[in-house]
Amino acid sequence: MTKMKSTKRALLSAVLALMLCIAMLVGTTYAWFTDSVTSGRNTIVSGNLDVELYYSALQADGTWSTYEKVTSTTKVFSETAQYEPGYTEVVRFKVVNEGSLALKYNLAAQVYSEIEGVNVANESFKLSNFLMTGIADVNAITDRNAAAALAVNKLGTFTMADQIALAAGAEKEIAMIITMPTTVGNEANYKKSDDPADPTKYQPSIELGVTLVATQFTAESDSFGSDYDANAPFSMWNGKVPTEMPESLVVDGATQTVHVKDAAAFAYLSTLSQKWASLYTDGQGTTYTNYVKGKGGNYYYSGQWTVSLETDIDLNNYAITPVDIVFGQSTGATAFEGNNHTIRNINTTTGLFANGTRASFSNLTLENVKATNGALAGIVNSLVTNVTVKNATISGTDYVGGLVGKTYSSVVRCKVIDSTVIATGKEAGGLIGYAETNSKGSTITSNTVKNVSVYANNRAAGLVAQPNVNIKVYDNTIDTVTVGVTDAGEYQPDAVASNALAPANVYNNTVINATVNKDIAVAANNTDLKNAAKSGGEVVVAPGSYKLPATSDFDANTTLICTPGTVFEGKSGLNINGATVTGAEFSNESGNAVSGTVNGTFKDCDFTGSNALRGCYAGENVVFENCTFSGDVYGIHFDGGSNDVLFRNCTFSGFNAMGSAITKLTLEGCIFKANDTSRYNGINLWGDTDLINCTFVFDGKASTEWVDLANSNKTVTFTNCVVTDGKTEKGVETVVGNFELGNTVIVDGTPVIFFNDDLKAAVANGNTKLLLRNGEYDLSGSQKDGLTLTGLGDNVKVANTTQFAGGKAVGAITKAVNLKNVTITNTVYTMENGSNATFTNVNFAAGFRQGYGKNVKFTDCTFGSNSEGYALHFQTDSASEGGLIKLNGCEFEGGKVHLGGKRAYEFVGCDFATGTDFQVWSNITLDGCTVNGVEVTAANVATLFPNLNLEKVTIK
Fold first, then answer.
1. 149 CB contacts (<8 Å, ≥6 apart)?
2. How far is CA 662 from CA 576, 602, 674, in A?
3. Residue 750 in contact with residue 777, Cβ under 8 Å?
4. Quick check: 443 and 474 in contact, CB under 8 A?
5. Residue 224 CB neighbour total at 10 angstroms
6. Phi/psi at 526 (nearest 5 deg)?
7. pTM above the 0.70 mark?
């Protein structure tokens, strides 16, 4: 008490030069676009974000100041603050997401620079050792005591578990607190200077900063989903266990905590645990006294230790030996505190942590897991709370669970989501395989299993296969599970518990949409697979490598349910007698293709490698749904067959040749992606084909980017398809190329013309809407009222459009004609019936000369001039009185613009070359027009067009 009083009387007059230091930290794996906001002497640097920071300070009258934007001169904390025990300062921040991407963030006060002081006991000290900080909701701070109570972190620390998500355009108010606790004594009371020339000789000072840790939040999607930024915040493992203890693994004997700060530190935990069993030091040279001698003469620290995970970790699918984390006495338990972090891409044996571990686990997420008994561990002996497993494939012999294979303790508030659990022997549970009792009894409560499939030869359940007699199972939720067993016997499969030894202890559980199958085969090797397929029915195939059985070994009613990691290697004929295969991977072996007669249905399968599916023939029933084909060349190659083939919602890369003698090929909802490593791209069609709701993504790096039809007398129909380079959507017709004579191509009901003879034939057949591929076309004799011709690509040329040739009308351009995206190489003459025509993106290389007509519209057209010097020429036409000639966004390369009377002419956003000569007999409007980029105004129009009759001109 005396110590505290003396300290409070002697105010600590350390002047804190507090400057705001903001640093947006992104993951080290990816490089992102950046934005910055400077404050003080530091910069916010954001990954693909546009973020602003504002602050508000508490004023003398007790009100908060108006939020001000943080700039390079902002000082958000008091520069004259004199800290003593109990002194507390609060500043409000407002984080505003002004970008288009969601983010997640956290704040922490950190030391930017510091000068040590000397206390009254002549001991050196730093202020940073005695200041605490915290982040809180602004409404949680009601007075000084409430604020100080929320300052629970040391300077420079924060927990990412408290990350705040901020949607695009949203904002969030938070308060930052800095305080010196009342427990601080004279150890932080600096002594007076004994040097009159240096009054601050022993006075400490500190320059603080605020670190805003933020990353992209996986809320947005690109063309391939919402996972493009999913790796940003993770520490990546290189697959190697360090030979020496990394600095990122910190053992703190004072708090009995092992701090894990990156992936290398996590990988070293087992090594540290092994050293711990034979040493009575902390592994960093510090000796502790509180040790007891255990069996075998080893020493163990008698207290309980906590392993604190302080970052998200990506194990990168490298095989990792189950991690041993036994720190402390042999009869005690280590506490693994996940701090709501995630460990992802786990590839291990029994589970991520060592079998039989005595550790308790809390607040952890395991994502993308491959293990044999449980995602967390094969066997656990202590409490597991708030651990989530996502996207796991757990496959073993006996005692297999989505979370743990076998537990001797309670499991509370845990989740298993979107996972598969397989026991080729017995005891498979969506959460736990086997729950054994301890002396006090255990509870399995408030857990969730959702979108999980559970299979076993015997004893399978959606939650726990067998809870022992003293286990209480209640208040759990089982949502959308599939449970199946090969041989139920007396142990019936169940959505909750298959073999509860005390059924009365299983109560108040909620089951939603459960499917329980008592007759399903489980295959773990080629022999099992062959025998099961021959018998028919559903066969669950455990992860592993297989050879697809021969046709004679398949019953037509067989369905192979292949779990993640199921691979069929080598030359697989795929002639499976009409059966169904789901979830398999078909891969090459020594360059051989997956080939043969294709007969059956394939769902959610991956065909990988060059020649992934080649030398194939269409059998009686050929359907591919949600499959991927990633072959560089011949991702799919059908050499023949007399049956239909359907691809629905499939994804292709590389080059694919489809259908020689196939009756009909249908591609529905498929995606074709250019592969810049491929020698070819696209598809080569040999038969009649329908493409419906398909997307072609070509990035400009591939050597060819089209759909080819190499056979003759075939029809290809595109319906509601899209072509894009990843940024800009293009007309689907631009993807079509290299077609032979006699083929028909239809895009959304409009025929595509490749050859001039086909154009004449199409018009003669009554077509009024046609698409023209690159090439030259002769419109002589192509008279048709309402004819619409749209050019495709950049090299579509139309010639012989003159209506009068040798005194005889040939009628190429007639009433209500519509031309788009073409170049007309000769002068256009339409002396009569030229009304209601539209021209879009047409290059009139030799000018446009129309005698009569009204209501003609030109959009984004270019006008050259003919031999007589005319770029645009309309005759006077009394019959067209009241008509309008409108030109939007057009460009004139020079020449005469002759505008006959009785019509109105409107030029909007047009550009004229210098020297363009207007000859006007009617009213015209110039709206937003320019001459070589100079805007036409009332003041300069006479100069820009010296021969223009200004009485007939309106300038807008």
1. none
2. 19, 18, 25
3. no
4. yes
5. 11
6. -65, -35
7. no
